[in-house]
Write a structure and sequence with these properties.
It holds the Pfam family Sigma54_activat. Helix content is about 45%, strand content about 15%. It is α/β, with parallel strands linked by helices and about 450 residues long. The strands form four sheets. A five-stranded parallel β-sheet has the order 2-1-3-4-5, sandwiched between helices. Strands 7-8-11-6-12 form a five-stranded parallel β-sheet. A two-stranded antiparallel sheet has the order 9-10.
């Protein structure tokens, strides 16, 4: 059932408002701020109707506005309908500006109040459905990136914010973490998406050829230069230039790249005529640039030019929950490509995937999953098929929801008791439960209530 919390200090109005609603909405009431916050934590209502005139300021609105701020902070998805007097439109407008969903003016009209509350309930339902549908995807809107961990989702949200701008971006992280995918996302989500994306690996091209590859050359500038040629920078004009492994760029070339970033002009090898270029620059490296600077192998002024925004991509082992999510996605995609679409992971494979450190990150995982699809004899891929060790895996591990819930409850109770200096009344309000319930829980988990608990 949908939960409605009515915050009203007038017992008569409480009763009238309660009987306005049908049986499919469960109505609770609170007469002051403290009772309202306790009910909010315990019931998690979809909608709250809030009278701004609450004690100890029934003639004003200070207590009501303070409670509105608390509700929006503690339960941002809850829809708050502010109840005001007929001559109190100013406070209604202020409440909407603070984040209230709607307002209703006294005196009470059952039909109008029911309509406003039902509309808020429906809005809460639609937003919940939207969140659930969004969570069914990869967790990101970035092509090729599968993530569920908070660490990686922060990176993806940052990419979405940075992409529409033209700031020079440095992406750091271990080999195989998906730095080029993020660079392409910065291009695809920008206004330059329909223009070229030019990528060059600074570590893969010999030093004597890298300059001409980047900046181009004029006919006759060196032996074999039988015609003029654009470099990668010019080829990316209007679009994005991706400099992979920029930490391996020779020092002599770093000075020329710095001039380009400052002036936005290209000097081809053998030419004296600068060519203006409009390009966004994205760089990546698996090396620690600060260490390179300290060793004298990277220009500090170039570092500050290329790192207007820095994205530090976490290694796969640092992304809690992502290894299995990515492995499942790879199994589905690669299984279809290799005509084995119905494969699943066995229990020991799941445990091995979660326990393995993945030193090669996602690139290593792609190789192992692809091999396992080929080598699996039946419909289930084992840890042996993945060539993953079972050492360090708890083979008797079972995911027990009751144990997880009880551990979380115990931790929350201890924290509330510690915060309230073991005042049971205050701790029960913090937890949103009654005092008898809290006593039952402390007995259940054998938590001492008169001395600091021992969590060992």
């Amino acid at each position: 059932m949908k939960q409605l919390l009515i915050v009203e200090d007038d017992p008569g109005l409480q009763s009238q408002m309660r009987w306005c609603f049908s049986e499919d909405i469960e109505v609770s009431v609170a007469a002051d701020r403290e009772a309202a916050l306790t009910a909010l934590r315990r019931l998690e209502p979809e909608v709250v109707t809030l009278d701004l005139g609450l004690p100890p300021d029934p003639g004003g609105a200070t207590e009501g506005f303070a409670l509105l701020e608390d509700i929006l902070r503690l339960a941002p998805m809850t829809k708050v309908i502010v109840v005001t007097g007929r001559e109190d439109k100013e406070n209604a407008v202020k409440a909407i500006g603070m984040g209230a969903c709607d307002f209703y003016q006294k005196p009470l009209d059952a039909d109008i109040l029911t309509f406003v509350v039902n509309r808020a309930v429906r809005l809460a339902e639609l937003e919940k459905e939207n969140r659930e549908l969004s969570s069914q995807g990869n967790g990101t809107n970035i092509k090729g990136i599968v993530a569920a961990s908070p660490e990686m989702l922060v990176i993806c949200r940052t990419v979405e914010k940075v992409a529409p701008t033209d700031v020079t971006t440095l992406i750091t992280g271990e080999t195989g973490t998906g730095k080029e995918l993020l660079a392409r996302a910065l291009h695809d989500l920008s206004h330059r998406a329909d223009k070229p994306f030019a990528a060059i690996n600074c570590a893969a091209i010999p030093e004597n050829l890298l300059e001409s590859e980047l900046f181009g050359f004029e006919k006759g500038s060196f032996t074999g230069a039988t015609q003029s040629k654009k470099g990668k920078i010019e080829s990316a004009n209007g679009g994005t230039l991706f400099l992979d492994e920029i930490g391996d760029m020779p020092m002599a070339l770093q000075a020329k790249l710095l001039r380009f970033l400052q002036e936005r002009v290209v000097d081809r090898v053998g030419s004296v005529k600068p060519i203006p270029v409009d390009v966004r620059v994205v760089c990546a490296t698996h090396r620690n640039v600060q260490d390179l600077i300290a060793q004298g192998n990277f220009r500090e002024d170039l570092y500050y030019r290329i790192s207007e925004i820095t994205l530090d991509v976490p290694a796969l082992r640092e992304r809690d929950g992502d290894p299995l999510v990515i492995a499942q996605s790879l199994l589905k995609t690669l299984g279809k490509q290799m005509d084995r679409p119905n494969l699943t992971f066995s229990d020991d494979a799941v445990q091995a995937i979660n326990a393995y450190s993945w030193p090669g990150n996602v690139r290593e995982m792609i190789n192992k999953v692809k091999r396992a699809i080929i080598m699996a004899d039946g419909k289930r891929i084992t840890a042996e098929d993945l060539v993953l060790p079972l050492e360090g895996c708890d083979t008797d591990f079972q995911l027990n929801l009751r144990q997880v819930r009880e551990a979380a409850e115990r931790k929350a109770i201890i924290q509330a008791l510690t915060t309230s200096n073991f005042n049971m009344a205050q701790a029960s309000r913090l937890l949103g439960v009654t005092r008898p319930t809290l006593y039952n829980l402390t007995d259940k988990y054998r938590i001492e209530t008169n001395t600091a608990p021992n969590e060992a």
